[in-house]
Amino acid sequence: MRRAGNRAAAPDTIPVAATRHDDDVGSVQRGPSLRWPSVARSTLGAGCVLVAAWVAVTRWSTLVAGHPAYPVLLGALAVLGVALLVGARRRRPVSVLRLVARAVAAVLVVAVLAAAVWLRPYAAEPVAVAAAAASSTVDVVDGPTRWELRPRGRQADVGVAFLPGAFVDPRAYLALLRPLAERGYLVVVVKPPLGVALLASVGPVLDAHPEVARWAVGGHSLGGVAAAGAAVAAGQRVGGVFFWASYPAEDLSGAPLAAASISGDRDGLSTPADIAASRVRLPPGTAFVVVPGAVHAFFGDYGPQAGDGTPATTRGQAQQQIVEATERFVADL
Question: Which of 171, 232, 229, 220 is nearest to 199 (CA)?
Fold first, then answer.
């Protein structure tokens, strides 16, 4: 009887041990495939939400005043972040192929996050924001893709279209350009998508104002590069192009355009050497005005800029000369 009892008991212990062994092996196999993707999704999701929130909190006024493309990008990042955080809680089997696909997607998300941080704009200073208010002489119209300074009363037959520097709040140029509107010129400051002037088009601005017989197109820094291309593309509707701390990337020496180059001799980004080298790409008779002591960031009201030079004059004195030189150029068209 004892032998029979022992035989009966022995088989009962084998399945228990085998079952526990199978569970232990399964937990080892499932652990990495479930845990690490969840951590990665949570990290990326949190990064998307935090970056979108950080830019929104620190640049809310600039986002509202600029082109809608960047806020849309931030909104999409926030939605993606929430989706990743919610998806990280779901535990599901992950194949090798799916892991590879997720790794590629993660790299793309990181790239978009880096771009969103890089595209964070320079904010306009209070003096520029104040210039966005209407007055008895100038109406201010804020549209989705441009700011317009419309003179009240008799309007000149020449208009001014302006393209901002890279990642600069378009309002940063309103105070410098407003004197032109007060003299009767329609002034339009384009809002570039994502703050990149090369992505903008001046054509719709010209088409929206058939009452303007002739245009001067200008820009600061990268905006000047874009202005050169826009002036050529617009044909006879544009009579002149002006550059603020900038120069053309293409050859305009044979273009039927008046041109003006206004620069600072302390500019650390569009250096005096760069301006001098651009002479051969500009039309004969181009007016070159060098503002003594001026730096790159003096051509707008958005604060200091990394890589710029050290000024040897005040912002107010430099900007007075910039405005006067621009007014003379537009008046001569």
Answer: 229
Q: Which CATH class is domain 134-331?
A: alpha beta
**CA atoms of 89 and 42, how far apart (whole Å):** 9
Band the pLDDT of 6: cuts 50, 70, 90: very low
| 81 has pLDDT over 60 | yes
pLDDT at 103: 85
CA-CA distance, 77 to 82, in Å (whole number)?
9
Residue ranges covered by each domain of the chain: 2-118, 134-331
- Average pLDDT, rounded, for the chain: 89
Report whether pLDDT(88) > 50: yes
Structure confidence at residue 93 (pLDDT): 64
Longest dimension (CA), the chain: 121
Q: What is the pLDDT of residue 102?
A: 81
Q: Could you give the angle at the alpha carbon of 328 between the alpha carbons of 324 and 330, nearest 5°? A: 115
Mapping DSSP onto H, E and C, the string for the chain reads: CHHHHHHHHHHHHHHHHHHHHHHHHHHHHHHHHHHHHHHHHHHHHHHHHHHHHHHHHHCHHHHHHCCCHHHHHHHHHHHHHHHHHHHCCCCCCCCHHHHHHHHHHHHHHHHHHHHHHHCCCECCCHHHHHCCCCCCCEEEEECCCEEEEEECCCCCCEEEEEECCCCECHHHHHHHHHHHHHCCCEEEEECCHHHCHHHCCCHHHHHHCCCCCEEEEEEECHHHHHHHHHHHHHHHHEEEEEEECCCCCCCCCCCCCEEEEEEECCCCCCCHHHHHHHHHHCCCCCEEEEECCCCHHHHCCCCCCCCCCCCCCCHHHHHHHHHHHHHHHHHCC
Per-residue confidence (pLDDT) for residue 37, from 0 to 100:
65
Full-prediction pTM beyond 0.90?
no
